[in-house]
């Protein structure tokens, strides 16, 4: 009889321990894992931002040097991440894609006697599909790195477009156009992909004084570009009578009066390749 009672006691103890364990795991899963995952996914998005920032830095460097021959920069892109070993091993996913069309950029000045058109500049996007944190889209277009979250977009890293105003009142606008020849590509998953940018040429289209410059840009991220143009003009010391920024189907920057305008176009090809294909055989 005592042995039976001891056996029953052991079984009850095991059941109680299992119940406590299940309860603790449930509390951890409900209360702690979402926050841990949000933190891990935030770290992964920082990694993605670092990858795209390195790609932009490489392209900026090649554009600044403007070599006589073609050269290639490459950057690995970590599509998936945010996992927690054992506890929550599933990675968040990502989609890396290229758009050969937008943005478009148009420049006119001096009552349209000066006019340049740069359609289909192309963009590289990485969309992050998180499990707990907010989904995000990172975009590289015309030298700018843009972040889109919910219904807003902000410029994380600026393009090669600068505005200056000297003490004598001279206004300058320098525009570096990054024109990427792209195919429409899309890769989804949680692995590592690689983006290649091959520089082909650099052309100076304009370098001199003109008047009443209008820069018109068509993009899916107009609020980021509008904020960029407005902040740059104000920080350069332009007053309200010297510039205006408006948005409708595009964003338009108008600079009034005489302007020292510099327009340089950088051309290159961009492609997505799996990392396994990018490794040289030994």
Distance between the termini: 73 Å
Order of helices and strands: HEEEEEEEEEEEEHEEH
Number of helices: 3
The percent range for strand residues is over 45%
Q: Biggest sheet, open or closed, and with what strands and sense?
A: 8 strands, mixed
Mean pLDDT: 88
Instruction: Specify the structural class.
Output: alpha+beta
Please tally the β strands and state the result.
14
Please give the oligomerization state of what you see. single chain
Q: Tell me, what's the shape?
A: elongated
Which residues sit in consecutive blocks of at least 5 with pLDDT less than 50? 277-282
Number of discrete domains: 1
Secondary structure: elements and pairs:
Layout: H1 2-65, E1 71-78, E2 93-99, E3 104-109, E4 114-118, E5 123-129, E6 136-141, E7 144-149, E8 152-157, E9 161-165, E10 171-181, E11 185-189, E12 192-218, H2 222-235, E13 243-247, E14 251-274, H3 275-278
Parallel strand pairs: 10-14
Antiparallel strand pairs: 1-12, 2-5, 2-11, 3-4, 3-12, 5-6, 6-7, 7-8, 9-10, 12-14, 13-14
Brief summary of the model shown:
This protein is of the alpha+beta class and 282 residues long. The protein is built from three helices and 14 strands. It has one domain.
